[in-house]
Amino acid sequence: MKFEFRTSTKCSYDNSDPRCVEVATNLPGKVAVRNSVTGKIVLFTATEWTDFLAGAKVGEFDVS
Prior knowledge:
- This is DUF397 domain-containing protein.
- This protein has 64 residues and is an alpha+beta fold.
- The chain has one domain (19-64).
- The chain has one helix at residues 46-57; strands at residues 6-7, 21-24, 30-35, 41-45.
- The termini are far apart.
């Protein structure tokens, strides 16, 4: 089976600046995140992804 990526709703895709984050959640137990410029993919387990999103929502990864 193949990852089916979708672009983040926060992405303002522009052909002159195509930097976006793409996420695929179509494979059970796996989440893939892809950089739209380089095509590089980072894989997460479903639990890791859930934990990451929870941390992001409370500002755990904010740069000060």
